[in-house]
Specification:
alpha/beta; 7 strands; 7-stranded parallel beta sheet
Length: about 280
């Protein structure tokens, strides 16, 4: 069995930083994690990719084509569809099916690819056929989630991804180290959602909108609380223990390492004559 994290999220959520830090964390733990970049618009990342979609197609190729004339978003969609049409290239780049392979797929920052389009869903189907256990990891910038309306927006986006992909799923709040103490304290109220608190915050922030959509906001808040559909795990990449906890959560979801043989140590029982001598 091979294992994969599908690392997704809107632009600026810190996907590439997350991948590079997990690679370093794995090295410290004497594990090997590889990263595959499938973002055709990536400009820079701090890791050595196992495979890079830009070697197959770059978003500029689609945007600069005189016949297609795509914009940035259309170009990204075209590139992902092109990758699926040339899936043999990706399979070759991934190499042979080796047990316990652990790969992070650094995905594009166009959220529509995950919330309602089928492109990423089709990619996951391919990976499953190639013997991958997959966990979807959806990243959201914590700075975006520090008021009620934005928190509900981020929560609904995460829920859309969960419903669309139908994969084991983890939602992570990144860039926790950039929050002020007051913002972090406020965010704590959202990590264990209290619908009444959310409603009060929404009404205080957008009074007219809050009054007009009070019942809708209340219903969404109740769904989040009653069914525990969406939960976020805060991540501070400066905190090694926090990173280890997040990795352990995802590894448990993936069942990573459960097929490993139990390691035993050979030893000899003491000879009965030796034991009698020791007591004489």
């Amino acid at each position: 069995m091979r294992y994969a994290q599908l690392v997704m999220g809107p632009a600026g959520s810190g996907k590439s930083t997350y991948c590079s830090n997990l690679v370093k964390h794995a090295e410290d733990s004497r594990k090997v994690i590889n990263v595959v970049n499938i973002d055709p618009a990536a400009e820079y990342f701090d890791y050595e990719p196992l495979a890079d979609i830009r070697e197959l197609i770059h978003v500029d190729d689609a945007m600069e084509d005189e016949d297609m004339k795509f914009g940035p978003n259309g170009g990204l969609v075209f590139c992902m569809e092109y990758l699926l049409e040339n899936s043999d290239w990706l399979k070759e780049q991934l190499g042979e099916d080796v047990d316990d392979d652990y790969i992070l797929f650094d995905c594009p920052g166009q959220i529509e690819l995950y919330t309602h389009m089928q492109t990423i869903r089709q990619l996951t189907d391919l990976l499953k056929n190639w013997n991958f256990n997959i966990c979807a990891v959806f990243l959201v910038d914590a700075q975006f989630m520090v008021d009620g309306p934005k928190f509900l927006s981020g929560t609904m986006a995460a829920l859309s991804v969960m419903v669309n992909l139908e994969l084991p799923h983890v939602n992570i709040l990144t860039k926790m180290d950039l929050l002020s103490k007051s913002a972090r304290s406020k965010l704590d109220n959202y990590l264990d959602p209290d619908p009444q608190y959310l409603l009060t915050d929404i009404e205080a922030t957008h009074s007219k909108w809050g009054r007009n959509h009070h019942r809708l906001s209340e219903a969404i808040g109740r769904i989040i609380e009653d069914f525990s559909l969406v939960r976020f795990i805060p991540l501070d990449l400066r905190d090694d223990e926090n990173v280890a906890d997040v990795m352990m959560t995802i590894d448990n979801i993936l069942q990573y390492g459960e097929d490993a043989d139990v390691k035993t140590k050979d030893f000899e029982y003491p000879d009965e004559n030796d034991r009698e001598d020791s007591f004489s």
